[in-house]
Design brief:
This protein is mainly alpha-helical and 91 residues long. It has helices at residues 8-44, 49-66, 71-90. The model has no long low-confidence stretch (mean pLDDT 93).
């Protein structure tokens, strides 16, 4: 009796998985970096904090679109950034 061979669909999934993981990792990393720089700009009270927040929101939306993070996670992070910016502006 011959040994079981993997189906074509399983072989394709084996090929796809590392590529998809790499794309998702890049998206998550970009979103984290953008959020970190936005938080630093908010904390420092710099003039370009609105631009940094917009870039972070864009990176979060891209990550959510690609499936790197959950859409609700992206929305929550954007909300927290906006809330922090509003708090800094009023202070």
């Amino acid at each position: 009796m011959p040994m079981a061979t993997k189906k074509r669909s399983a072989l394709k999934r084996i090929r796809q998985a590392p590529r998809r993981a790499a794309v998702k990792t890049l998206g998550r990393s970009a979103a984290r970096t953008a959020v970190r720089s936005a938080r630093e700009a908010i904390g420092a009270g710099t003039a370009d904090s609105k631009d940094q927040i917009a870039q972070a929101a864009s990176a979060l939306d891209r990550a959510a679109k690609r499936g790197a993070i959950h859409p609700n996670n992206a929305a929550r992070r954007k909300s927290r950034l906006a809330k922090a910016a509003a708090k800094q502006a009023s202070a």
